[in-house]
Amino acid sequence: MHDEVAAYVLGVLDDDEHEAFERHLDGCERCQAELMELAGVPERLDELKQDPSASEDDPPMSMSR
Ligand SMILES: [Zn+2]
């Protein structure tokens, strides 16, 4: 059951499994913690993607007069 956190996050569980896992999650701190961790991954990836160098805007070509 503990192994299904990833599948739950990815949304690949059957309706039955989904329901069963949510019921399990309700009383399982371990899975709740893991769920938080997994759920935070996309956010963290997004932060990593924000490359500081990307914010450096080059002036448009029309400036060269
Ligand atoms: Zn669990």
TrEMBL record:
Keyword Transmembrane attributed: no
InterPro entries: Anti_sigma_zinc_sf, Znf_put
Domain Putative zinc-finger: 4-32
Record keyword Cell membrane present: no
Top-rank taxon: Bacteria
Signal sequence segment: none
Name of this chain's protein: Putative zinc-finger domain-containing protein
